[in-house]
Amino acid sequence: MEKPAHQAVGHQQLYSGLIRLHVLHHAAAKPVYGLWLIEELRGHGYKLSAGTLYPLLHGMEKRGYLRSVEERSGRWTRRVYRATPKGREALSEARERVRELFGELFEGRRGSKKVKADSFR
Ligand SMILES: [Zn+2]
Q: Does the first or last residue of the chain, that is N or C, have fewer Cβ atoms within 10 Å of its Cβ?
């Protein structure tokens, strides 16, 4: 039996949303490229291979959160990603949700009424 690839990097599925938020956060701050993101995410404890990161970036671009262009850097060209207006909007909404989760995880606060209403009505 072949081992699922995600076992090599830990709870990939659980963290995939967090990784996307990291990517969106950095792509909103400045243009970013794949290898830079791999290093950055490694600094946060996420060990992503190019084979995992690039499909993730393509997916986010397809959904309109990121836009990429080829940029020449010396002899090399690399694909550079920026957050779109939709991506920035999604990020600021996600920021509120992360704040909410953070409150529960670290401060024992219950979720706000607004999120509860959204989730259960
Ligand atoms: Zn980061």
A: N
Write out pLDDT tens, residues 56-87. Answer: 999 999 999 999 999 987 888 999 999 999 99
Q: Token pair for residue 48?
A: 């992503």
Q: Which amino acid is at 31?
A: P
Q: pTM here? A: 0.78
- Please give the distance, rounded to the nearest whole angstrom, from the Cα atom of residue 22 to the centre of ligand 1: 5
d(CA 58, CA 65): 10
- What is the domain extent for residue 53? 11-114
Q: How far is the CA of 81 from the centre of ligand 1 (A)?
A: 15
Question: What total number of domains does the chain contain?
Answer: 1
Residue 50 lies in a domain: yes
- What is the CA(120)–ligand 1 centre distance, in A? 32
Residue 68 within any structural domain of the chain: yes
